[in-house]
UniProtKB/TrEMBL annotation:
SUPFAM superfamilies: Zn-dependent exopeptidases. PROSITE patterns: PEPTIDASE_M14. The lineage of its organism: Bacteria, Thermotogati, Thermotogota, Thermotogae, Thermotogales. The active site is at residue 277. PANTHER family: PROTEASE FAMILY M14 CARBOXYPEPTIDASE A,B, SLL0236 PROTEIN. Coiled coil: none annotated. InterPro entries: Peptidase_M14. Residues 15-306 form the Peptidase M14 domain. It comes from the Bacteria. GO terms for cellular component: extracellular space. Its cofactor is Zn(2+). This is Peptidase M14 carboxypeptidase A.
């Protein structure tokens, strides 16, 4: 089926919806189409926010989709909001699939609310970084599924994770779409298995909206590339093996989290999973594969040295502020975890850089750009959380030392943003286009899985 007709129906969104808006729109949809859609509560978040499942259709097989598995990633929630409406309104679309759909717009409502400060101004990197929140791994819905592997034993799934486990165990989805997005760069995909039938579509869909593929460095060194910008989903066991090879301590001490959603779904239901990472911001260099005079090793060392300096700054500030903070603060959690585990991550990365012969080749422009500018972009997000952490403490303490710390952190954050504004040739990608990319990739994959 050609799903292109749906693209013209996607609204020209200017901002992201807030969690309460998603909830309200879900309820309105259920009231408007009571014969087609069923909405029910499957659990509650850690802060007791109801997590609602939207059930549509009555196919013989089940599909599961969920948004905001990382709470700073609302594009997928917007896509699901649109898809829900189309599935209930468009009988031709609904009948094309032999699925019963289980859709959750926001699986982490608590964390998503902590990002709402930038939802009305997503065009600005400064707004995004300054209002950014992402929890440590052991508080991420995506990475808190049970696992036992060598010394890694994790059996503390979050309440939100438990809701997904329940659906996976009871409904046995044959297709699952965990909706993620990147902050900066191009489009890239993760899938369960080598599926060449999907690759041409995956490559052409983003270009229809003038969004590039991500052709720079992969997220982590150990990924298996299936085609350009398409990777095999990587279980936590592969991160463990990488750290076992390159780190000097037990990998379980660094990981401190569990398996991913696709690992658990594969385990209990033999599910085919898709992740389509789309970026908020774009710079043309992210798709430039022309060769530079710099080796990949030299480029990676630039990134590593910058990350090391960032770590030292964050650690210094955190050690000053730690005794003032409420340990239940979400910013305390993420910063404490970062301070504790980052040294061994950096050590493992340095060992990999020094020993991997593949890094001896000349780097592309995209790879150099990833290791210089994009690295700095992601550092701005940690500085944004550090800034929010200090401001949170100052709400309860009036201390001259803390005001000096605030001045130092604000200065570091502003310098980082200034660097990015001067060195990036970026544009914010329209939300409509990003929703369209995730929508088309998801429907094409659902169609493919249905044909297996």
């Amino acid at each position: 089926m050609n799903f292109d007709y749906l693209v013209d129906q996607i609204p020209d969104y200017r901002r992201f919806f807030y969690v309460d808006e998603f909830d309200r729109r879900t309820q309105e949809l259920a009231e408007k189409f009571p014969r087609v859609v069923k909405v029910y509560e499957i659990g509650k978040s850690r802060n007791a926010h109801p997590i609602k499942v939207i059930k549509i259709g009555n196919g013989s097989r089940n599909a599961l989709m969920f948004g905001c598995p990382h709470p700073n990633e609302p594009i997928g929630a917007m896509m699901l909001d649109f898809l829900c409406e189309k599935l209930v309104e468009d009988e031709q679309l609904r009948s094309h699939f032999d699925y019963t759909w289980y859709l959750i717009k926001v699986i982490d409502p608590d964390g998503t609310k902590l990002n709402e400060g930038w939802f009305s101004n997503p065009q600005s990197i400064k707004s995004y970084a300054g209002n950014f929140y992402r929890p440590p791994g052991y508080r991420q819905v995506e990475w808190t599924f049970p696992v036992d592997y060598k010394t890694l034993h994790f059996h503390e799934p979050l309440p939100e994770t438990q809701t997904l486990m329940k659906i996976m165990e009871e409904e046995k989805p044959v297709f699952m779409y965990s909706l993620h997005n990147a902050g900066f760069g191009g489009v890239y995909y993760y899938i369960s298995d080598d599926s060449p039938e999907l690759y041409e579509g995956f490559h052409t869909i983003p270009h229809r909206f003038k969004v590039p593929l991500a052709l720079g460095e992969p997220e982590v060194p150990y990924l298996k590339m299936l085609s350009k910008a398409i990777y095999k989903l990587s279980p936590i066991t592969e991160e463990y093996d990488y750290l076992e090879k390159h780190a000097k301590v037990d990998p379980a001490q660094i990981i401190r989290a569990g398996a991913s959603s696709d690992e658990y779904a594969k385990r209990v239901a033999d599910t085919y999973s898709l992740v389509c990472e789309v970026p908020y911001y774009y710079d043309p260099r992210i798709e430039d594969i022309s060769e530079t005079q710099m080796t990949r090793k030299e480029a990676r060392l630039i990134s590593w040295e910058s990350s090391t300096k960032q770590y030292e700054f964050v650690r210094e500030i955190f050690e000053i502020c730690e005794n003032y903070s409420n340990e239940k603060s979400p910013f305390y959690e993420v910063l404490k975890n970062y301070v504790e585990i980052m040294p061994e991550h950096l050590n493992a990365e340095k060992n990999w850089i020094e020993t991997d012969p593949q890094l001896q080749r000349k780097a592309t422009v995209a790879e150099v750009f990833d290791n210089t500018c994009v690295t700095q972009f992601y550092q701005s997000l940690m500085l944004g959380m550090l800034k929010r952490f200090v401001n949170e403490i100052l709400e309860n303490y009036e201390d001259e030392k803390l005001y000096e710390v605030k001045k130092k952190v604000d200065g570091q954050f502003d310098r980082k943003i200034d660097y990015l504004e001067k060195n990036l040739n970026y544009r914010a990608i329209p939300i409509k286009d990003l929703v369209a990319i995730q929508l088309l990739a998801g429907l094409k994959t659902a169609e493919y899985v249905q044909s297996l």
